[in-house]
Amino acid sequence: MAGINEVDGDEWQSDRLDLAAYLARIGEGGGPPTTATLDRLHRAHVASVPFENFDLVLGREIRVDIDGVARKLVHGRRGGYCYEHGVLFAAALEQLGFRVRRLLARVGHHPERPRARTHMTLHVRADDGERLADVGFGSGLLAPLPWDGDEHPQDGWAYRLVTLEDGARGLQERGTGDWSTLYGFSPEPQHASDVVMANYFTSTHPSSPFVGRPVAMRRLPDQRIRLLGRTLQTSSPDGTEKQRAITDDELPGLLADTFAIPLSDAELATLVRRLPSE
Predict the structure, then answer these.
(1) Which of 73, 81, 129, 194 is surrounded by the most beta carbons within 10 Å?
(2) Which of 42, 82, 85, 123 is catalytic?
(3) Which alpha helices (H) appear in 126-209, and where do they start and end?
(4) 17 near 88, Cβ under 8 Å?
(5) Annotated catalytic, 82?
(6) Helix, strand, or coil (residue 181)
(7) pTM to 2 decimals?
(8) Catalytic, out of 45, 109, 119, 123
């Protein structure tokens, strides 16, 4: 019987990742394949590697092979969106001895007209338990979530895994009152080719939220910060939300100081020109 890695790990080429360089990028060391190690690495990745789609706005291809992802996120110290984060984190975990299943999810919950599977998340089996790990959902988990269906607080935020009415598993977040479904997924493992196809849709289709406007997100323990076009949004666990418009002049400092995204002067000039006139 096939184990947790029903998809042959060789197709992901995880061994090509420079693990030492990745660990230096997130400011952590390795460790045994336990949930404690997973929690530490997950939090460090979320804190160190931002969520952003700027290459799309700059007219560049988004690569989801491990060489391309590592060149950009590790050695180039850039951020990326879900596929890039997921491919990178999964490769590092596999080198450390974790068993990883890559999954594709439908964002939100719309049973009357299900959306395409456009988000990548990870089922991770450690020596002492199973977790949902997701370092690439820009406003989602800070730490891996136990695979048990119970409510789990994370620095003032709360999450749980539930079974939805269509049989899919759903990641839910509790707001100031009700639970909302961030995304739903089924357990079958995905191939590298599936991620290539999903990435092509997400990076090219007119209905994709990442085509046509800059998006950046930073996840802090007590705050979410999001740049959507010209709008800067912040939210806190108690439900407090603020938003304001940004100017062209403040964009470079905002990207460098708040989101830790290094761009050249030429890249910044192009990004400013392509900001929507919201």
Answers:
(1) 81
(2) 82
(3) 192-204
(4) yes
(5) yes
(6) strand
(7) 0.94
(8) 119
